[in-house]
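User: Can you predict the 3D structure for this chain?
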Amino acid sequence: MSSVSKGIRKVEVALRWDPSPLGSPPHDLDVIAATYTTDDPAESPAYLVHFDSRSPDGTIYLNRDSRTGQGFGDDEVMTLELERLAPSYTRVVVGVAIQQGEGSTAFGDIAGLGFKIREGHTELYAHDFAALSASTAATLAEFTRDESGAWRFRETVRGYDADPDAFARTMGGHGV
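Assistant: Here is the predicted structure, written as C-alpha cells:
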C-alpha cells in the first residue's frame, strides 16, 4: 500500500535565505505552525509552534532555527509528525513571518529565499516567494485530517502585511 493512500504522516518544512549584505542588520525569519481542533477549525488555534516553542505533545517542533540565514542548506526546519496528533486536531496551517527589527523588511528584500515541504525524500511542494515580494508574512501550507483520519496536504501560499504576532492570530482564517 502506498503512503499516498495512507495520507501524509510526517513532513518537514524547510526555509532558506541568504545572509544580509555586509553592514546590514541580519534577516530573521520564523516558521510558524498553528494547530486547530474540530471545535474551532479556523479562527483560534489551539496552540502555536514557532521559535522557542514546540507542541505540548511533542509532535511539532523546530529542528533548526537561524537568526541570520548563515550556513549551508536549510536555515529553519520544522517537523510535523501528523500521524501522532490526537484525533481532536483536524487542521495545521504552516506559515513564515519576518521578525521586523529596525525599519520594515519584505520578502522581496531578502535574497535566496525559498521553502520546501517534503515527506521523507519526496518533495511535496517548493516555492521561492517571488509572488509575495511585498509581503512580510505568508501562509505556505495547510494539512487537514479527512473523514478516514488520514492527513492531506494543500498549498496555501498567501501573503500578509503583518508583524509575526498579528500574523499568528489570523493565519488560519479561511477568508484571508
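The radius of gyration is 16 Å. The chain is about 5% helix and 40% strand.
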